[in-house]
Amino acid sequence: MAKEFRIVAETEVDGTPEQVFDAVTRRNAGWLWPMEIEPRRGGTGPFGSTVTVWEPPHRFANHVDGEGGFFNDLDYQLDERAGGKTGVHYVHSGVFFEDWDRNYDGARQHTDFYQHTLGQYVKFFAGADAVFADVQGPDSSGAADAFEAVKRELGVASVGQSLHLAVAGVPAEEAIVDYLATSFLGLRTPTAMYRFFGRNAFGSVVGMTVHLFAPGADGEAAGAAWRAWLDGLYAT
Q: Most buried of the four, 28, 117, 123, 225, by CB within 10 Å?
């Protein structure tokens, strides 16, 4: 049975409304995933959506309809604040058809992580195009305690921690732990952001996204390297 949901997130970003609007509508690969958005009201958006509000640099919204009463709305409202900051008022509303509580909890936690990552992109990489890779772990990473293995293997203990990232096939760099929660982990280096998702907690597997900003970065090679790392981590 369809049941509507509404998630609201209020954040403050170190950057201008122009930079945030650019990140949300043009450079999504730098913090979320690659998306094509036609820059006008009535334009086409991702997943068959339609742009319902296009008011740069202060508001962007899109809407998608589906069968059986399905809909999905995203709405970003941006306001300029003192000190070169921007307030981000984000609303995600739509419909879940089953397991409402778990789906809502998962969407709420993902929202917090995504909006934090948007802030990291704008603060440290604003205006930069990214090479993107999406990596999923093996079926064995769906175990209840699987995500703890990621934190343990990387040596993650706390937010703000600095650690040496040494993964075969990935440039060795110093990384900062910029986000840490039960099922989510964010690492930022001078040239990349790595986002880890413990979706084993929501009925799926551990996965990650790779956002590379270095000139000439190879997303395919980076994705393969991290996939091999996850496969090895859950091989036993």
A: 117
